């Protein structure tokens, strides 16, 4: 029995269906209201021989789960890559449904990876926590605005720590300003509790996840960052190389090529924006702790702006994460005590324990960072052996004079024997002179 190719275009109110019998011929078109009961009724008409394609949208995963219960194959198309639909002169839902069906029949459809249940759950938890943190930040900013417009400058660094909360409790404000401040403080306390609940749910979901355990070995990546990266990556085997993961995070440089000329610009910023922000935040920490990435940042900072160097460290971090998850290895230069502390915090948060499981004393920070210092020295030695004491060409070294740089080196003054006279100014004299 030949399979039917079903193109489905679901909008807010209606759903257009185009069915190709055997993948060829004129499509059979139907339309139904995009109500939950009608969508379930349509799904029951499908059989194991049917293949369904629909564009990725807000509820695409919910539609995918429902249709997978009846159809043999369900595919989500990538709307950013389906240019034949986006650039069509006649673009309607009816036309879109037929084009999707014909692209799937020709096996020429760019698809979207459908996350597994655990990854889907982690993504919802990560985005829910992100929304709560954004609301808490807004409440804190409103409190800062209240103090600012009343000409009050707090002396403590953390206004919402123990000393800061005590200060906010006794600061003299007008009655209506005091009411607004207390309302925002109650909002912050409520959001802190909700954020803690979400983090507990995240810890329980990844308690036995090996990928999260490996990510915690990287300095600068804590529990929420590790879960955010795990949720964004999903199945790491779908990325054939580190460059694919870098591009998925939008950290790859944009390229414009025409003929023999090629121009590279800023990073593309296309992909998982939240995961990209996590990598940038972790890069700030990696640039401070001893390790090969710190040496890389210092070397690049000598000739690039700070933000460019941090972005380059974030790209290196994504490459490192791909190798760690692909080969199943921890970060080789992880601080042992700090890594055990982060993993222990994950287990305590998942089980609800309030006391630490171990009472072993933590080593001194200098001893805990010894693997990183060893790796940094090895990286610096490698760069020196490969490029010389001045590093790669074009890098400003602290011990190099500005006049020694090839771009700023002063040319010797020509002698009388070799000097050639400069051409005279041949511009026509101005009128009236």
What's the total count of β strands?
7
Task: Estimate nothing, just give the exact number of structural domains.
Answer: 3
How much helicity do the residues have?
A: 40-55%
Mean pLDDT: 85
Structure annotation, total helices: 16
- What about the largest sheet? 5 strands, mixed
Structural class: alpha/beta
Distance between the termini: 95 Å
Provide the low-confidence segments as ranges. Answer: 394-426
Kindly provide the radius of gyration, computed on alpha-carbon positions and rounded to a whole number of angstroms.
30 Å
The 3D shape can be described as globular
Order of helices and strands: EEEHEHEHHHHHHHHEEHHHHHH
* Beta content: 5-15%
* Strand arrangement across the biggest beta sheet: 3-2-1-4-5
Can you characterise this structure?
This protein has three domains: 4-105, ATPase, nucleotide binding domain (Nucleotidyltransferase, domain 5, 2-Layer Sandwich); 117-205; 210-387, no CATH class. Helix content is 50%, strand content 10%. The protein has helices at 36-44, 60-68, 83-86, 93-105, 117-149, 162-170, 175-205, 210-215, 223-233, 242-248, 273-286, 292-301, 306-327, 336-351, 365-368, 370-387, and strands at 4-10, 14-21, 28-33, 51-55, 73-77, 253-258, 261-267. The strands form two sheets. The chain has a five-stranded mixed beta sheet.
């Amino acid at each position: 029995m030949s399979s039917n190719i079903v193109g489905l275009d679901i909008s807010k109110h209606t759903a257009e269906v185009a069915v190709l019998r055997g993948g060829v011929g004129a499509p059979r078109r139907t339309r139904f209201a995009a109500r939950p009961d009608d969508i379930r009724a349509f799904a029951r008409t499908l059989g194991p021989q049917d293949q369904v394609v629909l564009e990725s949208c807000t509820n695409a995963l919910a539609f995918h789960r429902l249709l997978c219960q009846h159809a043999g194959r369900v595919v989500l198309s990538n709307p950013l890559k389906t240019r034949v639909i986006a650039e069509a002169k006649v673009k309607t839902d009816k036309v879109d449904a037929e084009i999707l069906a014909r692209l799937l029949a020709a096996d020429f459809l760019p698809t979207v990876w459908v996350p597994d249940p655990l990854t889907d759950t982690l993504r919802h938890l990560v985005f829910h926590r992100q929304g709560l943190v954004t609301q808490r930040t807004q409440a804190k900013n409103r409190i800062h605005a209240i103090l600012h417009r009343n000409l009050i400058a707090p002396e403590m660094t953390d206004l919402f720590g123990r000393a800061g909360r005590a200060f906010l409790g006794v600061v003299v404000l007008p009655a209506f300003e005091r009411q607004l401040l207390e309302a925002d403080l109650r909002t912050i306390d409520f959001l802190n509790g909700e954020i803690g609940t979400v983090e507990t749910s995240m810890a329980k979901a990844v308690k036995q996840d090996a990928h999260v355990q490996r990510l915690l070995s990287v300095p600068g990546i804590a529990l929420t960052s590790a879960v955010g990266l795990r949720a964004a990556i999903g199945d790491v085997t779908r990325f054939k190389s580190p460059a694919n993961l870098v591009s998925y995070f939008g950290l790859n440089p944009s390229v414009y090529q025409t003929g023999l000329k090629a121009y590279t610009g800023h990073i593309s910023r296309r992909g998982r924006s939240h995961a990209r922000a996590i990598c940038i935040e972790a890069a700030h920490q990696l640039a401070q702790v001893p390790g090969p990435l710190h040496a890389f940042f210092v070397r690049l900072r000598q000739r690039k702006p700070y933000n460019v160097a941090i972005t380059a460290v974030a790209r290196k971090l994504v490459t490192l994460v791909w190798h760690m998850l692909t080969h199943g290895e921890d970060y080789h230069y992880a601080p042992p005590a700090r890594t055990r502390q982060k993993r222990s915090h994950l287990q305590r948060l998942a089980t609800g324990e309030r006391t630490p499981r171990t009472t072993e004393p933590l080593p001194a920070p200098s001893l805990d960072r010894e693997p990183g210092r060893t790796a940094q020295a090895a990286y610096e030695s490698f760069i020196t052996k490969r490029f010389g004491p001045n590093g790669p060409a074009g890098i400003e070294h602290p011990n190099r004079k500005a006049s020694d740089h090839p771009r700023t080196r002063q040319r010797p003054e020509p002698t009388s024997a070799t000097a050639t006279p400069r051409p005279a100014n041949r511009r026509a004299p101005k009128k009236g002179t």
